[in-house]
Amino acid sequence: MAETVTFLVDPLPVDASTEFLEASFREIEPGSGALAVNDFAPHRGDGVFETLAVVDGHVQEVEPHLARLANSARLTELPEPNLEQWRLVIRRAAERVPAEGEFALKIALSRGVDPGNTPTGWVHVTPGADFAASRERGIRVVTLDRGVARGAGERSPWLLLGAKTLSYASNMAAIREAKRRGADDAVFVSADGYVLEGPTSSVLARIGDVIVTPPPAAGILHGTTQRSVFAYLEGQGRAVEYRDLTVDDLRGADAAWLMSSVRMAAPIAELDGTSMPVDHEATAELNAYLLSPRD
Ligand code: PLP
User: Fold this and answer.
1) Which CATH architecture has domain 5-127?
2) Which residues line ligand 1 (CB under 6 A)?
3) For a Cys staple, 153 with which of 157, 209, 219, 250, CB 3.0–4.6 Å?
4) ipTM of this model?
């Protein structure tokens, strides 16, 4: 068992024979320099990735993450990933970490070494950060202008707003800006004043009895956690809705959360310096669901 596990993967074409799967990846030391400096990932952030939660040995929602990886690859014109290969790689990596506790399992696919005809892949599993306090007490969030109007994803597909690309430098800059402003995290707002998403999370709010989230067409990444929560709530007969939300709508919500695969549901306790109501009961229910084994 190891707390950190890294595999270097030779991404196979979709029609590769299954006999090649086991030999298509190997464990490496994460600092071994196995990733070439002339790969398009370190060069340009030109690749796509997914981060999956491993909870007590169970990898959460493998298929939704693989479907989104395939969609991100399509949007960035990378070769279609061989999902059979990635399923095996994910299973093997998860088997190497302790069967108790939370881990973050990242899979990535880059355009490969310049000139980029052969993709590179890797898997990196690390212990999950301790999210107990943010899940229970909540987080302070500031709104930050993303500088593009709602719907920019459809008008300007080259912005790749619906793909989970390796180009996260501006997302990280937004989190640093939030910290500079004394908060824990940020919510991006469109230039025309609509709530979009966090730099690494989806935004959900409870307005009356309805749980709402901005539509993916607003120009955001469609969150697997948000989809899973919507499916869970719908299964309970509760109302969910994709809805455009202004910052005032979010400020006036009965409760709101940032949600993502490893963090799960973190209630927003403060928005731009003003307290927000935290629904502790709903938060505990959502996190109990999100931490339970999900496929
Ligand atoms: N939006 C962005 C920009 C993200 O980076 C993430 C996750 O990292 C999410 C939303 C939430 O996605 P998921 O719930 O699949 O983790």
Assistant:
1) 2-Layer Sandwich (3.30)
2) 51, 197, 200-202, 221, 223-226, 259-261
3) 219
4) 0.99
Closest listed residue to residue 215, CA positions, set 185, 195, 238: 195
Q: Which two tokens stand for residue 132?
A: 């107990």
Domain 132-291 has CATH 3.20.10.10: yes
Mutation probe of ligand 1 site: the residue of 213, 225, 259 with most atoms within 8 A of C-beta: 225
Does the predicted TM-score (pTM) go above 0.90? yes
Q: Whose CA is nearest to atom 12 of ligand 1?
A: 223
What residue's CA is closest to ligand 1, atom 1? 201
Q: Does the fold of domain 132-291 match that of domain 5-127? A: no
* Residues 72-90 pLDDT 10s: 999 999 999 999 999 999 9
